[in-house]
């Protein structure tokens, strides 16, 4: 943040923000540009092409191709927050924006309408990528973390404002999902299949549709649309059935960006760009990442649902919590898996306003008892679909999930138990304790989510007219407040964030460098003695509670 600020002008500031509150409102860019709904790439009424990243042609290509493949502009409809002076029904007139009638037809009453990819992919998020020690561990993390996605989405909620209006949701997920929904009318089930191959239930940006580990097999209780020929080819090539079905499901999608040079020059024996072209444009809550070709990078898993928080401390807290949770899952062999259909229900619940404190989510009652794959298969009696697992899960509040309920200890208690068993220096433990304190107070409702705090800021602003409109002065004051909180010049509101300090250093201790060098040298020696190709040493993830956690962005 300091390095970015050093490159900016005096009146510019970097913000960690999930959604800019007035994206698509008049002249919201600097310099200002006019949208071109007739000849523009996106044909948006609100979003000028100049606001699309100019650094690579890929971004404009994605925008154009998603619209072209769908056969029409994307239609994003988000329920508006109905205040006392909000028109009812809330219906906007787009005629002065050169609407040809298509936007008026696509917009729903009492909804905030948006019409291009930029409204979703112009948002930000907090993602964490984990390095697994092997493919089996990667599959385990993928499945076990899937059920946490809606819960962490609700807890990290920080985007209640869209196109200058207060919405009745708290998260970006339905916005970004609709913004890249390239399905045709046939694929969406609006017309019988004639020209397309599949009826596809979800946007290519949505929650996962299947588990890929043996333990998750019997919880795959929804029909999986997949390319049968590709699935058979993968299985015949030695890929296990669950992973083959997962990949064959991803590949029901068409490419939305393809460059001529790649078609002419790529060597498919050594290059995986064509695979990544489809893999990386299936934007799901979790991503299973095979090792790149000709690289020492191993199997990885991305945790993708969380929203960006306004301070570095909050972002660090959510990141460290997820890292610690993976260590606890692997060390104690916890089981968080519930039927995939219930994860979908949880996702729909997570979008709602104040879901973190008002809603309940399906969660396992006993996470400490892990069934073996054999036991799971015996329980199911088949390779897919569960018939006797309803007693394994129940509806819980987020407070109960994190702090416990009856015999269920709660996630924070399990993490603290794990921390007590580790050798952690005092300074690091102090910092981690504050991170967990934030997660604990957000999950209990003692502290507000960022979305709740932003919504209350607008509702209590002197210029707010109780009409759901977030005017330019209100948005400016909100962002100015966020800047001052994030750079430390103002204290955060105590309802949202407590005062925190850290004893952790920005630099890595010399002792740690020496330890890594020793272990690396040892692994090289072992590989040489065994006459094996050299591999960089990678400690087992459970050796260090903070190992292998890397922060990414959308």
Automatic annotation (TrEMBL):
**Start-end of Basic and acidic residues biased regions:** 522-537
Report the transmembrane regions from the record.
none
Biological process (GO), any one:
glutathione biosynthetic process
Entry keyword annotation includes Nucleotide-binding: yes
The Gene Ontology CC terms held by the record are: glutamate-cysteine ligase complex
| Keyword list, A-Z | ATP-binding, Glutathione biosynthesis, Ligase, Nucleotide-binding
Involved pathway(s): Sulfur metabolism; glutathione biosynthesis; glutathione from L-cysteine and L-glutamate: step 1/2
Enzyme Commission code:
6.3.2.2
Q: PANTHER family under this entry? A: GLUTAMATE CYSTEINE LIGASE, GLUTAMATE--CYSTEINE LIGASE CATALYTIC SUBUNIT
UniProt record similarity statement = Belongs to the glutamate--cysteine ligase type 3 family.
Q: What is the designated name of this protein?
A: Glutamate--cysteine ligase
What lineage does UniProt assign to this protein's organism? Eukaryota, Metazoa, Spiralia, Lophotrochozoa, Mollusca
């Amino acid at each position: 943040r300091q390095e970015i600020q050093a490159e900016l002008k005096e009146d510019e500031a970097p913000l960690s923000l999930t959604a800019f509150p007035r994206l698509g409102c008049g002249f919201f860019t600097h310099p200002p540009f006019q949208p071109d709904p007739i000849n523009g790439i996106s044909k948006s009424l609100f979003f000028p092409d100049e606001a699309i990243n100019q650094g690579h042609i890929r971004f404009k290509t994605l925008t154009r191709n998603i619209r072209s493949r769908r056969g029409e502009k994307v239609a994003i409809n988000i329920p508006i927050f109905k205040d006392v002076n909000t028109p009812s029904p809330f219906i906007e007139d787009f005629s002065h924006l050169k609407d040809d009638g298509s936007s008026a037809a696509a917009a729903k009453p009492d909804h905030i309408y948006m019409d291009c990819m930029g409204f979703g992919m112009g948002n930000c998020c907090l993602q964490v990528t984990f390095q697994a020690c092997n493919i089996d561990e990667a599959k385990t993390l993928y499945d076990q973390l899937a059920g946490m996605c809606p819960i962490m989405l609700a807890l990290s909620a920080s985007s209640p404002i869209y196109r200058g209006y207060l919405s009745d949701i708290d998260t970006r997920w339905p916005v970004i999902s609709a913004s890249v929904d390239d399905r045709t009318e046939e694929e969406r089930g609006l017309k019988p299949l004639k020209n397309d191959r599949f009826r596809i239930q979800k946007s290519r940006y949505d929650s996962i549709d299947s588990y890929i580990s043996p333990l998750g097999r019997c919880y795959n209780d929804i029909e999986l649309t997949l390319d049968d020929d590709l699935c058979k080819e993968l299985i015949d090539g030695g890929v296990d059935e669950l992973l083959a079905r997962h990949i064959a499901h991803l590949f029901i999608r068409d490419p939305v960006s393809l460059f001529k040079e790649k078609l002419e020059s790529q060597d498919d024996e050594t290059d995986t760009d064509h695979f990544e072209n489809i893999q990386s444009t299936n934007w799901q809550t979790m991503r299973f990442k095979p090792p790149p070709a000709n690289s020492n990078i191993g199997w990885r898993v991305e945790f993708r649902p969380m929203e960006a928080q306004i301070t570095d401390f909050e972002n660090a807290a959510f990141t460290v919590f997820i890292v610690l949770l993976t260590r606890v899952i692997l060390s104690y062999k916890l089981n968080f898996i519930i039927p995939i259909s219930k994860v979908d229900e949880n996702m729909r619940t997570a979008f709602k306003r104040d879901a973190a404190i008002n809603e309940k989510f399906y969660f396992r009652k006993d996470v400490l008892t892990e069934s073996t794959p054999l036991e799971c298969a015996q329980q199911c009696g088949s390779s897919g679909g569960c018939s006797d697992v309803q007693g394994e899960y129940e509806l819980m509040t987020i407070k109960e999930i994190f702090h416990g309920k009856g015999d269920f200890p709660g996630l924070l208690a399990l993490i603290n138990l794990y921390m007590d068993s580790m050798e952690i220096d005092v300074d690091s433990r102090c910092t981690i304790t504050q991170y967990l304190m934030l997660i604990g107070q957000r999950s209990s409702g003692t502290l507000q989510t960022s979305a709740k705090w932003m919504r209350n800021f607008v509702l209590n602003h002197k210029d707010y007219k109780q009409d759901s409109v977030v005017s330019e002065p209100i948005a400016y004051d909100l962002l100015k407040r966020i800047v001052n909180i994030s750079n430390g010049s103002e204290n955060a509101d105590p309802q949202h964030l407590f005062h925190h300090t850290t004893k952790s250093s920005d630099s890595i201790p010399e002792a740690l460098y020496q330890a890594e060098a020793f272990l690396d040298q040892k692994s090289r020696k072992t590989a040489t003695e065994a006459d094996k190709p050299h591999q960089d040493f990678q400690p087992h993830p459970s050796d260090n509670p903070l190992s292998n956690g890397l922060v990414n962005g959308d």
